[in-house]
Amino acid sequence: MAREYLVLDDRMYTETDEWVKKIGKNRFQVGITDYAQDNLKDIYAVELPKIGENLEQFQAWGQIESEKGASELISPISGKVVAVNEDSLGDVFDTGETAKTNIYGGDLFNINKKPYETWLIEIETDDEEQLKNLINPEDYKEKM
Fold it and tell me: Does 134 have pLDDT greater than 70?
């Protein structure tokens, strides 16, 4: 029997399994979905952009390292990075041996346990129209 994945109704989704949630005027949090974390398996490193960096919708902004290998992280919206989630992430490790040896048991960032509570970045944008380019929760459930 196939596993049923959690999809929350308070956010929008990308074809590449990222989510975006509005948290304030022109401000959004971004993370990866339950489906993505399950397919990646144990996550041990995340490469994040710098605060102030401008991201373009559907362009890569970092990568996530897991036991399955490295995967690009794609921005669901265009805008400026205004925060990275250092509280949930702890130190941002580079990829490579340092990251692997400092982590015991995988899932450095709680992404595997709490994919919708563990946001990665916050983006500010004046263009909320671009949310129309994303997948709504019902359609994302169908996609999986």
Answer: yes
In a domain, 33, yes or no: yes
pTM of the model: 0.85
DSSP state letter for 79: E
Distance between CA atoms of residues 81 and 28, nearest Å? 10
Coil vs helix vs strand at 87: helix
Report yes or no: 109 and 90 within 8 Å, Cβ to Cβ. yes
Phi, then psi, of 100 in degrees rounded to 5:
-65, -40
Q: Which domain holds residue 42?
A: 12-69+82-124
Residue 48, pLDDT score: 85
Cβ–Cβ under 8 Å, residues 107 and 42:
yes
Q: Which residues pair with 71 in a beta bridge?
A: 64
CATH value at residue 91: 2.40.50.100
Of the listed ranges 18-27, 61-70, 133-142, the one predicted with least confidence: 61-70
